[in-house]
Every structure is written in C-alpha cells, then in structure tokens.
Design a protein that fits this description.
Layout: E1 2-4, E2 9-13, E3 16-20, E4 26-30, E5 35-46, E6 49-52, E7 54-61, E8 64-71, E9 76-86, E10 89-99, E11 105-114, E12 120-123, E13 132-134, E14 141-143, E15 146-148, E16 154-156, E17 162-164, E18 174-178, E19 184-190, E20 197-204, E21 215-223, E22 230-232, E23 237-251, H1 258-267, E24 281-284, H2 286-290, H3 296-309, E25 313-318, H4 353-362, E26 366-371, E27 375-376, H5 380-384, E28 407-408, H6 415-431, E29 436-439, H7 444-447, H8 458-470, E30 479-481, E31 498-500, H9 510-516, E32 533-535, H10 547-559, E33 565-566, H11 575-586, E34 594-595, H12 599-603, E35 610-614, H13 620-623, E36 628-633, E37 640-645, H14 646-649, E38 656-659, E39 665-666, E40 672-677, E41 682-688
Parallel strand pairs: 24-25, 24-33, 25-26, 26-29, 29-30, 30-31, 31-32
Antiparallel strand pairs: 1-7, 2-3, 3-4, 4-5, 5-6, 5-11, 5-12, 7-8, 8-9, 9-10, 10-23, 11-21, 11-22, 13-16, 13-18, 14-15, 17-20, 18-19, 19-23, 20-21, 27-28, 34-35, 35-36, 36-41, 37-40, 38-39, 38-41
C-alpha cells in the first residue's frame, strides 16, 4: 500500500540522515551533514537532449520513499525508490522509467548529479588533496583487447575530468573515496545493471575557498557502454539505474565492499556460494605445456595421472585446440557453420569429442570445454549470411584487426543467429557430453563502442548468451568467464561461478607470473563465496623458472583463494613437484576474503608483499586446526627481508606458526613475523590457535 507524503521529508537510521527536498532532490549524510551526498538531483538524456526531472509527488511504500518525477514535454515519467537500510546504514536509490507519451523516445543515459549551488559530495571537511579514489579500473581501463594503466589502485582525485568505469573490462561497479591513509570514507556502487552500466564523471575541486564539495564536477552516470540509446515505446517501463550509498567509518580497502556485497547477496542468486570449485580444483590443458597442441591421447594421459595422484582435481577443462586445423587458434565461431559437430580435428580426436568426455568421466572427472563466440571473416557463414553480422555506427560492416586475423561480430539480436548459437551449444553439451565451459573472447560484440545490434541493447543479448550457456551446464559443473569479466563485475555471477582475472600465465615464466599477478589486488576484498570466484590462471611448474620462482607462483595461486586451476604436462613432473601440486589441491577451501596489509601495494605497484586469509569456524581448514594462512612475497631481483607486526596480521601472541610446506615451526621476533627471502622468493605459513 502506498501513502502520499509531503516534502521535504527526513528519515534517520544508523547515524545517517536521508533528506528529500520539495524539488525532487535528496541528500544522504552523517547527522552533522559533514560527510555524504548533498542535494543530488535526477537527470536523463532524452532524444539527445539533457533534461532535469521535475517533482510530481511522493509516496511512502513500506520502508521506501517513492518520488514521482516527470520530464515534460517528452511524456517520460520516472519512479525513484529511496530506501534507507539500517544495518549497515546505507541508502539505495533505484530509477524506473515509463513512457506515457505517444511516439517512441530514446534515453541515452541517466544521471544523478548536484542540483544546487552548495550541492555535491563532502568528506568531513577534508581537502581533495588529502583524498584518494578507489576503483578497479584505476589499474586498467580497457578498450577492445588492449588497455592502459591509470595509476595505483588508490589514485589521487582527478585534476581533470575523468570518466571512471567506462570500460570494456566489465569493472566491479563500485567507487570509494578514501582518506590519505587509505581508509574508505564513502562508497557508491551499482545495485543493478539490467540495461545500462554504471560509471562516474569526476573532477576534483582544488580551490581551497570552496568547501562545499570535494568535486568540481560529479555525476553518477548509467548508460549503454557503447553510447547507444535505449528506445522506450509508448507504455513501456524499464529499470535503468540503481545505486547504493554508504558512509563508511574509515575502514581499509579490504573491507570497503562488505555492506554492498551483503545487499547484492539479498537481491541476487549468485553462483559463487554454491560453486563446486569452493572445495576442489580443476585442470586446464592450455598453460605450461600444450597450448593448442592437444589430442585425445594427451588428454587421456593427463586424466589418468590426475585420477591416480591428484584426487582434489575434479574438473578437466579442454582448452582451445580441438577444432579443425584452420580454426586453431583463430577463435572463429563461424567454423561451426553449417554443421557444429564437424568442427573437430579428426587427426587428433579420431573417435570424436563424445569419446573424450566419456573417457574423462571414466577417470572420475567432470569434462568441460573451451568455446568462443568470436567471429572471423573467412568462413562459410560469412559468405552465405553476411546479414548475420553486426554493422558499425554508420551502418557499414563492422570489423576488428586486419588481414587473416580480421574479426566480425554476430548480431545476437537476430533470431537466426540465436538459433545457430543454440545449435552449437547443444552440440557441445548434449551431443559431446561436456558439463562445463570456459567462455573466451566473448564480450566485444556486446561492448565495442562502434558495434550496433539491429534490435535491443548489448547488455540484453550478453545476458541472453550467458543464460543460454548456464542452463545447459550440469549441476556441479563449472562455468568460467575469460576475456569477459577480468575486473569482477558481480552481475555476471548470476550465470558464471568463476572468472579469469588478468592475462594468461602461458608457459609460466617469471615475467609472465609477475605481469598477471598485478590484476587480482582490487578483487581480493570480494570473496568468491559472495559473488563468484576469481581465477588467477594456472598453477604449475615451469622448467625455465627456478625452484624459488615456481614456489612463488604456487604460493600466490593458493593464498589468493580463487578457483584453483592446475596446468602443465603432469606426466613429466618428478615426485617432489607433483607432491607440491597435491599439497595445494588435497584440501581445497576457496572463496574466502584475502587481506592485504601491505599499504604500498595500494598506492604503488600492485604486487602485494604480504597476504593472509582467515578461515572461519566450520570451514574445512579451520576444522583441520588452521585458523589463518599468511604468505610473504619478494617480487624484486635481489634478496629482501620482509616483516610485519603480529597485530597487523591478526595473529595472537602465543599462536603456533609453521611453514606451510615443511611444517617447520617459526618463532616471531619482538612481536613481528620476519622472513629473509632470496630474489623472487616467498614463504607461506599456517597459524594454529
């Protein structure tokens, strides 16, 4: 039941105050008004023109204040649900648009921005020069397959206008403002991405005379990542924006998202909490040895060794390389046309892929397969159905790259294309019998800014593809997103259970390990059990690396608590090296929050020197008597001594500390855990109460 209410209106909860003004603006601040968001209003770009909403009334519906707004003379109306959350204190603002006019309207974007002279974002009277902004894309803003680094994860507030989150990397959609010590004070994040994705336009206010807002420019913007407007027909209703606001009590970056993740968990049924990879590892054929040079014989040999020696590995992922030679490794979905089942290299797989998946099952393993919807331009599908391909923004045929690697994109908004894709998926899952998938090179048709679908927006058809795959995966199977969510967008977790973060480890050399290990830092604070597991790519043994370097890689893969992925030719490993893989796969207990007490990793090179995981009571590791694991890493080319106070690590005085690999006891010195590490060295410890 709704009840009309008068504006202005004030509600308090948890030490914060929501104020709704008569002009349809809102503020959410601490009780003293010194920290939070002041007098923000609602805007939308309609038929190419930016418009500000005008108030048309307000209701109370349960715990929500509902604003009714209008955008005359367009006929577009908006409903805004403002809901105060008590524990932790937070505010959600959700925006739903209805077109009450006659002809169609196009909505290009919706904004939440200051609507008065003294409006904006305040942070307890702190100067912008004292503050930092935390967003995943600070480490990498991507465009197609390339990207550029902005700076450290904790960046100074931008001096010039910066659009944060406008990325094809599917970034984790949360922005925090932190103080100079790295403690988070404000958090703003998306609570839905049904149509539009969330980004922020920011420019710091460095004029010391201006104390009302830390930003000279500020707007929370929801829009299609390609800049393509959404069309609303007469009578149509679409939910186009939703944000979560929280004033934080100065928590570290590792705790900034806790309340937000709890709210997402109440709203969505994510796959991370029920992933089979929380308690087991998987093997992938790509890294450390085979790449695309695989065969039924190679797969069988690896599977039989895993069955004998690595019982903690329960999934087997066949990566790229099973296709016809001309489709390896060109990632060309068009090769599945017209007969998906014919796209197999009969020389390497003479009995077909069903025989391979059956053999894996006979070894007690769940078979999974690599696949990509990426399209080349040199195939029969393109020759016979050029109308199935996406145009660019000018109506011309879209393409990426050049020469034999030139790529096209399928238009998933066409029923004929979706029917073709479903036929391919039925071949993989039904005819060939695979129970899981690694989906690779998958997002550019939906994200590239110069691609256009003929009907509907990119997000709609991206979710269609993910759902089409997810519903075919057997219960307990795995679904990895690769090249599609390297920055942890939680809304993908409605379909997938883990995502590949960073680049490929490849053959496992030190320079590759160091390169790919820069990416996970922002997502260590997002437990896989909350949304989905991240995959830092394969753990394995590289003959070109020293024993210390190989151990560094294994320790990093283990302590980051994501999906545990094993690679390489296991049949060639000697007993000590195989024993190391067995050690980390025997008791998988994954998806816990990983803490980084190394502040320099946040403000400089994102390679943590210290990481630790606390295992909650009742977890497999805690039941085995281990409360915590701590790892120290030397990324330098010279020896280092690294230490940290026991209190900073959360280790109580008198706790028993032992080396993870040898069980050798370790004694702290003067209340600190200190280790001397050789170049590229590491050590990992277990802590018992």
């Amino acid at each position: 039941m709704s009840e009309s209410v008068a504006l202005p209106l004030r509600r308090e909860a948890g030490g914060c105050v929501l104020e709704v003004g008569p002009a349809g603006t809102f503020s959410y601040t601490t009780a003293d008004g010194e920290t939070g968001w002041r007098q923000l209003g609602f805007e939308a770009t309609i038929d190419g023109e930016a418009r500000r909403a005008g108030p048309a009334g307000a209701d109370a519906e349960g715990d929500a204040v509902v604003l009714h707004l209008a955008y005359p003379p367009t006929g577009l109306r908006e409903r805004v649900d403002l809901r105060v959350l008590p524990d932790p204190a937070a505010l959600t603002v959700e925006r739903t648009f209805t077109h009450a006019g006659g002809s169609d309207v196009e909505v290009g974007e919706v904004r939440t921005a200051p609507a008065a002279d003294r409006a904006g974002v305040a942070c307890g009277g702190r100067s912008p020069s004292e503050l930092r902004v935390l967003h995943v894309s600070n480490l990498r803003e991507s465009a197609r397959r390339s990207g550029h680094r902005i700076g450290p994860l904790l960046c100074p507030l931008p001096e010039y206008p910066r659009l944060i989150g406008d990325s094809e990397g599917h970034p984790f959609p949360a922005l925090a403002v932190c103080d100079g010590e790295g403690a988070a004070r404000l958090l703003e994040a998306a609570v839905q991405q049904d149509v539009f994705t969330q980004m922020w336009l920011l420019r710091a206010q460095y004029d010391p005379k201006w104390t009302h807002s830390i930003f000279a420019e500020y707007a929370a913007i929801a829009r299609d990542g390609r800049g393509q407007p959404v069309t609303l027909a007469a009578g149509e209703t679409r939910r186009l924006g939703g944000l979560y606001y929280q004033v934080l009590p100065g928590v570290g970056p590792g705790d900034a998202y806790d309340g937000y993740l709890a709210e997402l968990g109440r709203r969505y049924d994510f796959n991370g909490p029920r992933s089979s990879l929380l308690s087991c590892a998987f093997y992938c054929t790509w890294n450390y040895a085979f790449m695309h040079d695989i065969s039924a014989e190679i797969i069988g040999a690896q599977a039989e060794l895993i069955a004998r020696r690595l019982p903690g590995v329960r999934h087997f992922l066949i990566d790229d390389g099973y296709q016809l030679p001309e489709n390896t490794p060109s990632y060309d979905c068009g090769r599945y046309y017209p007969d998906p089942g014919a796209n197999v290299d009969a020389g390497k797989f003479p009995e077909g892929m069903r025989a391979v998946s059956d053999r894996l099952r006979s070894c007690g393993l769940r078979p999974a397969i690599w696949w990509s919807p990426a399209m080349g331009c040199r195939n029969r599908l393109v020759a016979e159905h050029p109308e199935w391909l996406c145009p660019d923004e000018h109506g011309r045929d879209w393409s990426m790259d050049a020469g034999p690697e030139r790529k096209a994109a399928l238009d998933f908004s066409l029923p004929e294309v979706r029917a073709f894709i479903e036929g391919v998926l039925d071949t993989l899952f039904v005819d060939w019998g695979f129970e899981g998938m690694k989906l690779d090179f998958c997002t550019y048709p939906f994200d590239c800014k110069d691609i256009r679908f003929r009907h509907g927006e990119g997000v709609r058809w991206w979710y269609w593809l993910l759902e089409a795959i997810a519903k075919r995966i057997s219960p307990g199977g795995m679904f990895q997103l690769c090249g599609g969510a390297p920055q942890g967008n939680p809304f993908m977790a409605r379909y997938v259970d883990h995502h590949h973060v960073g680049g490929d480890i490849g053959m496992g050399q030190w320079h590759r390990h160091k390169a790919v290990s820069r990416s996970p830092l922002p997502l260590l604070a997002v437990p896989g059990r909350a949304t989905m597991l991240m995959d830092v790519d394969s753990a394995g043994i590289c003959d070109e690396m020293t024993d210390e370097e190989n151990l560094h890689r294994l320790n990093f893969c283990h302590i980051t608590s994501g999906a545990l992925n094993i690679g390489g030719d296991l049949t060639k490993l000697d007993e000590p090296r195989l024993a190391r893989l067995k050690r980390i796969t025997d008791r998988c207990d994954r998806g816990h929050k990983v803490r980084c007490p190394d502040r320099r990793a946040y403000t400089g090179e994102p390679l943590p020197e210290v990481l630790f995981v606390d295992y909650p009571p009742g977890s497999p590791t805690a039941r085995a008597g281990v409360a915590k694991e701590v790892a120290f890493f030397n990324w330098d080319d010279e020896p280092r001594t690294i230490g940290m106070a026991l209190g900073r690590l959360g280790i109580a005085a008198g706790a028993a500390i032992a080396d993870f690999w040898t069980g050798e006891p370790v004694a702290p010195a003067d209340g600190q855990l200190v280790v001397g590490l050789p170049a590229h060295g590491s050590r990992m410890f277990q802590v018992r109460p």
